[in-house]
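User: Hand in any protein.

Assistant:
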Amino acid sequence: MKKINVITLGCSKNTVDSEHLMARLAAAGYEVMFDSDRTDAKTVVVNTCGFIGDAKQESIDMILRAAEAKKAGRIERLFVIGCLSERYADELRAEIPEVDDYFGARTWEGIVRALGAADDAALATERHLTTPRHYACLKISEGCNWKCGYCAIPLIRGPHVSVPMEVLEEEARKLAAQGVRELLVIAQDTTYYGIDLYGKRMLAELLRRLCRIDGIEWLRLHYAYPAGFPDEVIETMASEPKICKYLDIPFQHIADNQLSAMLRRHTKAEAMELIDKLRHAIPDLALRTTLLVGYPGESDADFAELEEFVRAVRFERLGVFAYSEEEGTHSALRLRDDIPEAVKQQRVERIMALQREIALENNRRRVGRTERTIIDSRQGDFYVGRTQYDSPEVDQEVLIPAAGRRLQRGRFYPVRMTSAADYDLYGEVVAK
């Protein structure tokens, strides 16, 4: 049997793309492995990220390592797909000619044909999971229409295109049949879902339909744009017990002049109004956000306003990035990258130090509570689990002593929280 190794870099959207590709390859008779160090796979596909500088470099380094393996005879065929090759295919062909061919993030039919797999519509909802079998991402749309000043995604992935609702339902049912219990609903902006197909935002209806699928016990919502956030989604999150009380909503900044410079489509007042509305409707909601510091023109006063925002809102989960200029974007073409790198890193560190204090205080308040917890793995002396307030790989975990107890991965258990760290909780299973 032909063996192929698919190496995936970058975000969860890339993971979904690779899983769809691997399902087609398996149907074509390949033995598929992923992110493998085995040397018996003579064909390698690298699915790249091209979003920010560090991710680009990681992708280039991986391509170079695979090219060296090909020159040494350890592999026979090498293909590169994804975001990096969408933007820089010509440059990559010139610099790394050992690659058999390059395909972009929007040219799946090319890689499928190159590998002799069927471009069969019946396989459109098939996935070869690379996550633990009890959770999976469900990508509900592709691309983005917002065109924020710093972001290259619209240049790479194109405009927003929703996946039809019946296709998503079929894919979700197949995932549930494989044992998936938690669906991470993802898109560049999930709240924009449906506008192109149905003439209005339809995320709430999609969530309600997904909640009716047997076997799915948790739905988790990632990457919601603040502007135009539908009230109906808030109502659905508050009323549907399967929807985790969790929302990933990247605000990026809060100072109005920074939001304007970033071409965000909301103001500080509108952001605060949305947060108040969410907190009021869903009192135990865990809010995750992403912030961007060091954007061109960010003054000391702007940054102080951002710090106060973090201090006031007390996000349960927070990530922060330093601005990295991306060619072709509005900020690269129109603005001067005028914040020194040392200042950018200082601002990152200050936000994260503040968030660490907030996270510890939030966790200490949960000590003594019993919360439904899903088990992801066992690591050493502990089982590693998560509550509804945490997404896999990016958020904190619940550590449960393994001594004297056997817990099953993918199962839910009532866990009483016994102690807290800044980004972890410790707990013990409560007898049912």
